[in-house]
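Aim 2, interim progress. The first record below pairs a target sequence with its structure tokens.
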Amino acid sequence: MISLGGLGTQLGIKLFEATREKQIDLVARDALSARQIAAFSERIGSIGSAKELIADTEVYTFVMRAFDLEAQIFGKALVRKTLESDISESSALVNRLTDTNIKTMYKTLGFEPGGGGSANFADLDWQSDMVARFKERLVLNNAAEDNEGAGLALDFKAKASGINTWFDVLKDADLGKFMRRALSIPDAVVGVDVDRQAEIFAQKFDITKLKDPAEVDKLVSRFAAVYDVIEGISTQQNSAALTLMQNAVSAGQGGNISIITIDIPTIGKTGYNAYR
């Protein structure tokens, strides 16, 4: 993989986006990932229930990794009960869990209430979308391991179009952190009642703007500037980043890359003490 370590947030994002296709290709060729992709493609069409999915370790692991739930892979009993619950019932387990990725997985897999077979599994287009989701999630997670700021921003960009309310943000720890930084809201706000948190965020930003890609990019630029100031990331890393990008282009890992300069206003230390 192409490392984003040691780079400023904005440059990390630019390098990732310039080499995205190459990184996805590298993920597909990784031995473990390739084996899980092959297992999913070969066997998902024959899986007829949530119970059968959980029993097939390779396919189950593929699915959990695709929905960024790798840390919960060993909770098979809970996952099965969740997939077998009926989302139309307010008390259903899938509606009581706070991790939004679980509900996304539930809806995407499309099991019948009780965990019966899903019509999606035999659909080749659906299978292709799942493989693409798996690869995308792995490269995003690798980016976050190398560079937290870039990882938070890239994860936000991937999820932005699906954000409809501030509660969608507040239920996701990474989205919450991104928005706090982007909107200069102290981390202490997490101790406030969730309804009040939503009001605070709403006063800072009109969430309907996230449907506009240009507004998403503006928010990412604001986040990158604030995040690097708070974390003490030096802008002197630019030359190293430029070298990496030039090498990536030379190696055929990216297309034409345009480096942009962000106009960062002077930021006084006093306003950021709450973050430390």
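The second target in this work package is listed in the same format:
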Amino acid sequence: MENRTEHFLLSSLRGLSKKSAWFAGLLALVPLGAAQAQENESTSAPVQVIEPDISPRSISEANLDTEFFEVGAFAGLLSIDNFSTEPLYGISAAFHATEDFFIQFNYGMSEAGLTSFEELSGSNVRLLTDDDRDYSYYDFLVGYNIFPGEIFFSDSLTFNSAFYLVGGVGNTEFGGESNFTTTLGTGFRIVLLDWLTVHVDFRDHMFNSDLIRQSQLTHNIELSSGFTLFF
């Protein structure tokens, strides 16, 4: 009985030893396979990397560094309510308090022509003397840059620019009257150099006048352009 038991145990141990040896052989083959795969990858053809041919573009633009004051001159056309559209010219000065807000002073001069009634009446009727036809105004405006941006003229040349709104009050001398004036408008500015800008402005100068009829609110439309210097 004991011999049979010993024989069975010896046979089981021999079977386990064979299985363990077979399993250990498989484990030994796994690193060899991984190493062979890495060797095959290293000996394969190198991967070609295509780099895009992009060269940086150099742009030259005018910047305003520490210049806060602006002075200049402008010229354009002024449509005087109830009268004709005449040439306009003047001077301006501005102080840029912040990047967005500025304060502006303007002085402009023009000369009114004949009304349609005077033209139809011939040379016998004149509502105003020659001196009274002189039109001049001054105003103090507050401006706000609503759309600052840039204008590209070429691949390497660009200029800073801005659309802005203005509004304020002033006074108008016309027809022998001195009239309190409210001014609203908009404009566009291009910075050509860090000390030179060009403007295009549209303004409405509004005041009450009784030259033609009693207590009439007149709208005097200005379209002008000019150059200013920064310092």
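The two ends are 120 Å apart (CA to CA). This observation will shape the mutagenesis plan for the next reporting period.
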